[in-house]
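Internal tracking record. Fields below are filled automatically when a chain is submitted to the structure queue. Please do not edit lines marked as system-generated. If the sequence contains nonstandard residues, flag them in the REMARKS field before resubmitting.
Queue: standard
Priority: normal
Entity type: single polypeptide chain
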Amino acid sequence: MKVRMRSVRLTAFLVAMAAGAATTLADLPAVMDKVPANASMVVAFRNVGAFAASVQEFTQTLNLPMGEMGEENPIQAAQKMLALPGIKADGAMAMIALPDAQGNFVEDHGVVLVPTTDFDAMAKGLNAEKAGDVWTAEVEGEPLFIKAGQGYAILGKDQALVTSFEMATGSATRFETALGAVGKRIGDTADMIVILNAATMRPKMEEAIGGMGEGFDQMAEAGIPNAEALTAGVGAMQGALSTMARDASTAIVGVSIGSRGLTIDLGGQFAEGSETAASLGGMTDSGVLMGRLPKVDFYFAGAIDTASPMMQAALKAMGSKDDQSTMKVLGENADKIGGMSFVVGASPAGLMGGLLANTAMYTASTNAQGYADAYYGAMKSMDGKTVEGMTYKFTHTPGAAEVSGSKVDTWQLGIQPDPNDPESMQVMMMQQMLFGPGGMQGMTAVTKSGMVATMSQNTMLMTQALSAAASGEGLSTAADLRTTQAAMPAKRVMEMYLGTRSILEAVNGAMAMWMGGAEEINISADVAPIGIAMSAEKGGGGLHLHVPMSSAKAIGEFAKAMQGQFGDMEGDAADPMMDDAPPRF
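SYSTEM-GENERATED OUTPUT FOLLOWS
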């Protein structure tokens, strides 16, 4: 373990050596021009000093105890190494993993390129000794070999590798081409990037994918419900990931931390003509679908563009696996569905008002009435069925009401539990938590462009939903949502949002109700949602996460307040057991 910890500290030291490095955005870091094209992996920083400071600020905002890591804290290591003389503060740095003779990825087989203003001063600052062109220093009891090269210090643990390493020329252009449109956009804007060469990393990728199914084959023997379905789902995921690993050519991870918050981007470029590259064509924009939703405070919201070959295939595959659900409807009508969006609106009564009671959905369809008929047909199949002690009764009333000039259908799915089955009674309790006192019910309306639906018979919500579906100026016009969207790609295939403020308010109310003595915590009204999105372009795909600084701050303040409250409560509860005083009643 001690050797491993030393290795960790040495790696942190190597990262820290580039503190203060910087390049102009809208381009890959300049050091990428010096990286060999056959590198298995490259980690490059624009400005490690600023990056470390941003990480520290962000973790403090989230109330994370980074200071407790002590000497293993990479932020402190970076700040400490900034004091070394001779490091170029306005350069860029790269950590490079090189393949072995067989072309495979090998751990600890690489070098670090650190920009310098005075190589000799830096080497002497490390108390390094020179032997020929290579200097040797000792860091945490391990040897570190250093060589000068074109304004950089070449550092590594392998003396032979450092000695033989040659700077490349013109590599930045080659990397840009390999990254593709999605990957280049990530690389041009992120504060830190990690680029993976799929050819050399493929064995590791396949090993990781193969290990995903471990333990699932024992679930059925352990009596876990739906074990076979879960195992089949994991198997399907493994198959899809294996195909992607086979077709992948280059992958990139980008991380940015600043005043806007934390952004993590994952991108992949796939071989031209491959199955995966072909499936990523024909994408439109899920952002348009967000505008078809009512503008309400929400717990969750999202949209998905289903017009692409990849999404069409996914819908059809899901529909073929279930003959008695709305999944079948999606599969059978995939070619008529252009996209779907939903919003789980916040309830004034918090979690007790029904988590899904204020849900509205929009489905873009070229045959909206046909889709609505299939939608009701799937739910009607449940009428009269008894499943695990619960008997279902479905009712559908076409044209039951008129809302904003549109005919609206209503429906209700009642559940009669077996009074002698405790599990079915628990399901009834869960149903009330999800849908409120009214149970599972809703409304639908067919419009010119699709179907609008709600998960309650709330006329006001349906009015808002129909208005947004017609104008396209609904939830997408919310200022807090736009703040999050601005930090993600302009064209998105899929996007999901967590309404941080509404979720914290609901948890706050529930804790105040269920935990005696808990005080309500004040949550700022100006909190942007956390966003997750997918993008695709020219044979490449990306997954993007953005945590706005306002969300991070709200979560951190909430966690700190909760810790203070429940820490006090635990202390009060422990008092009678921790002193010699007579019992207190």
